[in-house]
Amino acid sequence: MSAYLIGIMVVASIVLVVYALWPSTSPDEDAIKRRITGRTAQDSVAAVRQKAKESVAKRVMQTVAPLAVRPVMLGNPEDISRLRMKLANAGFRGEKAPTLFLASKTVVAVCLGLAAATYAWAKGDTLTGGLGLTLLGAGIGFMAPNLWLSSAVKKRGDLIRNGLPDSLDMLVISVEAGLGLDAGFQRVGDEMKKVHPVLSEELQLVTLESQMGIPRSEALQNFSTRTGIDEAKSLVGVINQAERFGTSISRALRRQSEALRTKRRQAAEERAQKTTVKLMLPLILFIFPAIFVVLAGPAALTMMDALGDGKVGG
């Protein structure tokens, strides 16, 4: 019976695949359309497949995401706003980013809960033990996206923080060469695309907002909000203060660049100083016992042999 069922499923799968790949129009009509649009056959097939994948993924997300969000939907709009800002700090600025993140919490919690329940059932645990293990897996799955988001925010902040001094040096050179501040931001964003792509993207967003008519101070404030690091807030404050009081922007940027470089060097020195303390635990647990065995082992064996011979002789 199982062999007949497998055969029916295989035949049905083949029929569905052939039906999905069967062209809806004749080859002559497809060739004429490709010649009119100037595309090749491979481009047409690739475009159709890409469009099909996007439409299927979009339908699935539109159907599944709202259902997965309901168990963890936050009632306070301020919580949603904070979540959206944190996702923006991690580089996810899409409109559906909060919905997808909340849906991921539900999906990961359910998956880990089912995995834990399956493991408990296969192990033969009691009902109480299996239920506890399932709840533990679901709880870990529910909190795992939060840990990932915090790690992504920290990693992106470090990338922007490390690229700020170099970008400020180039911005100072651009301003001193005669470019305006907006043109300098655009220039730095284009030049730093391969070296610091994350910071380059943020600077290009500042340029786009300025070109759309948003005041420069507001565009810079949005930049500091999106990045979420203190160095960006300090930079925005220095630029706004220089424009307000009419002081030299290039001089203020140069001093800010030097301050950032000093801070980065001090942070590196601090990490180097912490290395000695962090190495103590591996030294005590792994290296010192091996050294003790190598140094004291032969002497201990010699003493054991001597004591053994003395006992035999006595």
What would your notes on this structure say?
With 314 residues, this protein is mostly helical. It has a domain of 112 residues. It is built from twelve helices and no strands. Helix 6 packs across helix 7 and helix 10 packs antiparallel against helix 11. It starts with a helix and ends with a helix. About 4% of the residues have low confidence.
Q: What is the H-and-E element order?
A: HHHHHHHHHHHH
Poorly predicted parts: 23-29, 40-45
Helical content class: over 70%
The fraction of residues in strands falls at under 5%
Radius of gyration: 32 Å
Quickly count the helices: 12
Note the gap between the termini: 83 Å
- Overall mean pLDDT stands at 77
- What does the main sheet amount to? none
Shape, per Cα inertia axes:
flat
Please state the structural category. Answer: mainly alpha
Number of strands: 0
